[in-house]
């Protein structure tokens, strides 16, 4: 028997049979309690994982109707149930997706025992069975059941193939999505494999992983709108961090020469297919490195992550192929911008010329934008979406990257790059500014913008400046969005890569 579909988002959606299905399951729970049988026991017998039995017997190529003599106790979720006649067939699934058939017969359970199973067990239940490992008449590996117990009774039927979950419901009720859709379970494991590969790569290069505070007194390390909260113990207004940078630099100043963190950051901004208000960032800082050494590092991180899940070749949005095993392209921001506008522009191009170019290309500018900011605005509108193959866009205007070191050759530029892949920014890196006097000047300028009402401008962090005054070594620093990396490697949207993404309340 199969369940009539119940919409898990809105079980009482007007179809007469939907409340009935939930009522019937609750009555089964009540019957178990009346019999003194817990529908949610503390524990159930379990001697083997389904994957262990599969690993042991699938390679043996057993004949049909084979009895192995091995007695086992296994547990899984009922995903298929045929409970008519004298022989019931059940398919159990484990959390990792491994499935195994179990068979319950009149001969083994008796008339009353088999009838009780038929009356109490539904698709979706977590079921524990004990019995012998056999192969069926069709040669399928199975457990011939001699005893069973419910590990947990489900009160809501699962969606079925005739009416699957909508995309919105899949995201909102990820726990159901994980039960019914293997792609959702594979995403969880793919992301875990990527994280493991990233950490292994950092470890190979002598980086130390640390944890830094989520609650911050000031808004620093990036240009973004923060979330605000209140710390009652200090009667102090606090912010959720928008970046990991400043505390990691403090650690490097203190002598942790190669330091990194993979942590949650929060930006109170728009939500779309590539942005979430809460997301995972990867940041690393290497004393005596620069933005070139960071370019080498991030290429290795991405390649090793792709190798970990077998996805080093990716189909791009335009249908072309991206091979992350190949060397990444390097280009300058002003070089790409010159190609896009059809004339030469560089760091010396004046405000009037850039403003005119913005008008010609329908690039809307916010009031008060300076030359460097307009150049970046033009680049974002005209160039970013064209960068399908992995490209380091290097050498930004100083006003656009206030935490980067002045360019070693070209005045007015800083040593910073953004990495674009498939038309999306994936990572950033700097030759880090370590002159505390220049850093103070730039942060003061940012704080004045914040005081004037710019919600994304950084605030003045006196403790960070004090730390820099104790001597920060020359360094390279990099940041990368973990979720965007997983999106790139798996070809999915951000709501698929984040296990439980933030959603508007129902």
UniProtKB/TrEMBL annotation:
One of its GO terms (biological process) is lysyl-tRNA aminoacylation. Pfam families: tRNA-synt_2, tRNA_anti-codon. This is Lysine--tRNA ligase. Residues 194-505 form the Aminoacyl-transfer RNA synthetases class-II family profile domain. Residues 20-30 have a biased composition (Basic and acidic residues). The keyword Lyase does not apply. Residues 1-30 are annotated as: Disordered. It comes from the Bacteria. InterPro entries: Aa-tRNA-synt_II, aa-tRNA-synth_II, aa-tRNA-synth_II/BPL/LPL, Lys-tRNA-ligase_II, Lys-tRNA-ligase_II_N, Lys-tRNA-synth_II_C, NA-bd_OB-fold, NA-bd_OB_tRNA. Gene3D superfamilies: Bira Bifunctional Protein, Domain 2 (3.30.930.10), Nucleic acid-binding proteins (2.40.50.140). NCBIfam families: lysS_bact, PRK00484.1.
